[in-house]
Amino acid sequence: MRRFLHVTRGVAWRSIHNTVVNPAILVPSIVFPLFFLVAFAGGLSRIAEVPNFHYRPGYTSFQFVFVFLQSAAFGGVFTGFAVARDFDSGFARRLLLSAPHRGGIIAGYVLGALLRWAITGAVVTLAAAIAGMHVYGDGAELVALLGLGVLMNLVAALWACGLAMFLRTEQAGAVIQMPVFVLLFLAPVYVPLSLLTGWIHDVARYNPVTAVLQAARGLLAGSPTELALAFGLLAAGALIFGAFARRGLASAERAG
Amino acid sequence: MVVDLAHEPQTVRPPASGVSLTEQTLAVAKRAIVRTSRQRALLVFPMIFPLILFAINGSALSAATKIPGFPTQNYRDFLIAVPFVQGAMFVSITAGVDLARDIESGFLNRLALTPLRGEALLIGQLGGALVLGTLQAIVYMLVGLASGVSFASGLGGALVLLLLANVIAFAFASLGGLLALRFGTGEAVQGIFPLLFVTLFLSSSSLPLDLIKATWFRDIAACNPVSYLLGGLRSLVISGWDGQALALAFGFALAILVLALGFSQAAMKTRLARR
To answer: What torsion do the CA atoms of B26, B32, B34, B38 make, to the nearest 10 degrees?
Structure first.
């Protein structure tokens, strides 16, 4: 266990250190969610005037929740890019040789993803607060909202790390991020599920991200809904992609 | 005289009998087109990504048509302009990265030793991107038509839209070329891409200017040339022949093109002299 924690701490520290000292990595991960927030909450605010759009905290809060969860997911995805880069540069192979407990490598990258998102999530929340976001949830509900973000980050990081370890090249970037991006945007991003029509409504209804998004919006509005389903789906996702990441590591070990 | 640059290592034959600027440009363009067509990942991703967003946002934002004053009943009619501009932005990266690779690999240095003129090299290098832009525009138009988009300006409007889309793609490709010449690395060109995307976000890409509620956002969008590029493309679909919208769109696209090519020409001279 000590060796596991040792490796975890080392990999996580390196991951967050590389992020913080390298503006080319840090800036896009902060700027992108901010621009989504600006574009959606600012540019689309009139959408709240569509008949039957009811969200008590307002459109900025409605969009903040999406961007908050999106930044969590992309915090994980960007960590997958780092794993791929480590394989391209040869660092990951040296790490595999030297780590006394290889399970700690995945845990370290995942912890690094969480720390990376802590920065982005804080900036996005601050920006939304400055933009006039209304919060009706109480302390416990906001902690639960944070919990959803943490789990979202975990699931995305495990997916991204697993795939990066299977593919072991930076060119895997598009393959890592595209499914996450599409899944996020196939949820009710701009209007509530009830206002979606056509195929997007059918897809969004069965999209697991929808339940998480609706639960998170409910928490911010102080009217929790679908909480058990959202946490259950994310926990299941963490288990599935945890196993996927473990297999990815095994694949990398076999490749040498 | 035929100058074939399609296969590296290339040699540019000396102009014994004098090779015209057009011939030089076409030779470099041929190489650029062959190279672009060989990079299937470069062809597919920039084409698919705007279509995915078009499919998703075309449905997800359809409720916006219920906002009083929205110019059309079909949100896809409004949104179809976005893939053309977004695709052009991807083209700019393709053009920039290809040129940057030639700079990094030393190919540009070798060309500098030949009688090839800078203008031919610059315009020719963008040839691959232009072909890619044309291909993309045709695909976007066909997908738009298949998804129920109708042209208020008819067949003639569709052809003008293709022309405008090509001018926009060439303008953005020139911008990519300029970045490559200024910075000299593909990484730097790719690093600029988010900024290009930001200009799309901060425009009238999702709602018409007069329906944007946040004043500060509307002001930014009103000062953003991308809003007018979108406006010109959109006018042909929604309102028919709108001379002002078309003049603004062609005007801004040509202004970007002329400025980018002008600065690129200067940067090319500097780079060829520096190396």
So the answer is: -170
